[in-house]
Specification:
The protein is α/β, with parallel strands linked by helices. It contains eleven helices and eight strands.
Length: 278
């Protein structure tokens, strides 16, 4: 059984550790800054070992950086230098341009594949731990230029093993723009929508609750991906504003035909998105 070191036991790291352990895919070593978090993860039964030292990467077949992006950017040099030759180094950060650049600069004898599972919930830390979190969800993978095929295959097997769907990409900048469009801008929209007068919130229904669910997310996590993806988020937000302005123009003119066409198009695209209409 391979040995996987998961650095960071928040929602994603904890869920990955739980999925790997409970599906018997790996012997998992958890690394976290707080000793109490390590002890709690052991009590939950999602790890074989736990500690607070990055040296765990030296004995691992696969090391997964699962800390917030700005934290893992600081950790990459130290973890990369500790990773043993022939091992695999990856991450689960939600933005990739800065991460891939940091991996390129790092001195390591490990193979590197950057990663981003498109999964999560609004619960922070181990409270959000779910061994089925990745089931049916895309997991973006971006290999460094000279990464051996065997290393890519190893990570793909792990990703499939936890129920996810590997999606290979070559350009981290394109990844960041796509994610800004379908993930980061929706967070901004949710926050803007949630800032309603309190007397208005008293009459909110399901549409408001569904549209603002992600506004319940951990604020530090959201700041982390927004601030490491500022350019793509701004571009995606301006694209969204253009589409929103178009709808407002159609509404102002009372253009029922135009509105119907846009609504039907959006309904069709939403129904065809991964996960279906639910």
């Amino acid at each position: 059984m391979i040995r996987v070191a998961v650095v960071g036991l928040g929602q994603i790291g904890g869920s990955l550790a739980a999925a790997l352990t409970r599906r018997r895919l790996a012997r998992v070593v958890g690394v976290t800054r707080r000793a109490e978090t390590a002890r709690r993860a052991r009590r939950m039964g999602i790890l074989a070992e736990a500690g607070t030292a990055l040296e765990a990467a030296a004995a691992a077949d696969v090391t997964v950086l699962a800390t917030p992006v700005r934290t893992l950017l600081r950790q990459i040099p130290g973890v990369a230098s500790r990773a043993r030759p022939g091992s695999l180094l990856t991450d689960v950060g939600s933005t990739k341009a800065e991460v891939c650049a940091a991996f390129r600069r790092a001195r390591t004898e490990a193979s590197v594949v950057a990663g981003h599972p498109m999964a999560g919930n609004e619960r922070a830390g181990l409270d959000g731990c779910d061994p089925d979190l990745f089931e049916g969800r895309p997991w973006v993978l971006i290999a460094a230029p000279r990464t051996p095929r065997a290393a890519r295959d190893r990570l793909e097997r792990l990703v499939r093993g936890v129920g996810s769907r590997p999606v290979w990409m070559s350009d981290p900048i394109e990844h960041d723009l796509r994610v800004a469009r379908i993930s980061h801008v929706p967070y901004l929209l949710a926050y803007a929508l949630a800032r309603q007068p309190r007397d208005t919130l008293r009459v909110c229904g399901n549409s408001f609750r569904d549209a603002t669910r992600v506004a319940l997310s951990d604020v530090e996590m959201v700041l982390d991906f927004l601030l490491t993806n500022r350019g793509p988020v701004r571009r995606a937000a301006l694209e969204m504003r253009g589409r929103f302005d178009e709808l407002l123009r159609l509404l102002a003119r009372g253009d029922e035909r135009g509105l119907r066409a846009r609504l039907r198009e959006a309904r069709s695209r939403r129904a065809g998105a991964p996960g279906g209409p639910g």
